[in-house]
Amino acid sequence: MRFLVVGAGALGGYFGGRLLEAGRDVTFLLRPRRAAQLAKTGLVVQSPFGNLQLPAPRHVLADGIDGPYDVVIAGSKAYDLESTMDSFAPAVGPNTVILPLLNGMKHIDSLVARFGEDKVLGGLCMISATLDDEGRVLHLNDTHGLSYGERAGGRSARIDAIAAQFAGARFDGNASETISQDMWEKWVFIASAAGLTSLMRASIGDIMAAGGEDVALSIFGECCAIAEHNGFAPRPAAVQRGRAIMTAAGSPMTASMYKDIVRGAPVEADHIVGDLLGRAAPGHAAAPSVLRTAYVHLKAYEAQRARTAG
């Protein structure tokens, strides 16, 4: 089975590297700058589960794709999705499946519109990783899960084939029969944490120290209600886990969107928060709420950033 991993950043570099380590047929789709960097340093992964040093991993540039691949693994930022789809389109053949690892659900609509309903699996990953200034993949926590499945549910031959390839690789692969539910539950949590910590410009622990437990529970409850309105009410275990994380005293946790704001980077405001608001019950998206306030805050940041750049 031929895998095309789009990019060798934090996600692609980690999971693609682990598949290469396990002897799988992996090619990275790279931009010229990252290709030049890997030619010098190789793919370096530093992780609690074992470090990797993979010299000169096989790669292609967008204009060098040599035909269809069996699986395309894509984990770009949402604001890069259009150009990302353009780059890997030549790799999508009649039997190719696309495994996206973005948060939210809007990207699914875009991928289906471009490549067709049957081409797009559901997927998510649970990992904290980043690239350092030297291009090394730094795995920052003790989880490295990758879940995937048919969006309509159940199991299929192509999911079984992917599961066989993931078996033996050093990450926790999970062939889920409820991947759409899993994706919605992650979206609820990501939107809550991103909205809250970005709005407050503070960690969960600092927000709790300021007496903000009710605010944290309000935004989480709003996100749960939107998921329920769409037929994906979070399961009790997900609700319990989310509430505990969102109100943990002393927690240093901040969402990656908050970190992007701090360094003046683009944010996925529309994809993570705006799209969720857009799927709310009629009237909710325009009503005053913590989630809507967080969204306006994010859009104001984007406006300020655009003005500064101009």
Automatic annotation (TrEMBL):
One of its GO terms (molecular function) is 2-dehydropantoate 2-reductase activity. Keywords: NADP, Oxidoreductase, Pantothenate biosynthesis. Belongs to the ketopantoate reductase family. Residues 179-301 form the Ketopantoate reductase C-terminal domain. The keyword Oxidoreductase applies. Residues 4-150 form the Ketopantoate reductase N-terminal domain. Transmembrane segments: none annotated. GO terms for biological process: pantothenate biosynthetic process. InterPro entries: 6-PGluconate_DH-like_C_sf, 6PGD_dom2, ApbA, KPA_reductase, KPR-Related, KPR_N, NAD(P)-bd_dom_sf. Catalyzes the NADPH-dependent reduction of ketopantoate into pantoic acid. It comes from Variovorax paradoxus. GO terms for cellular component: cytoplasm. It catalyses: (R)-pantoate + NADP(+) = 2-dehydropantoate + NADPH + H(+). This is 2-dehydropantoate 2-reductase. SUPFAM superfamilies: 6-phosphogluconate dehydrogenase C-terminal domain-like, NAD(P)-binding Rossmann-fold domains. Its EC number is 1.1.1.169.
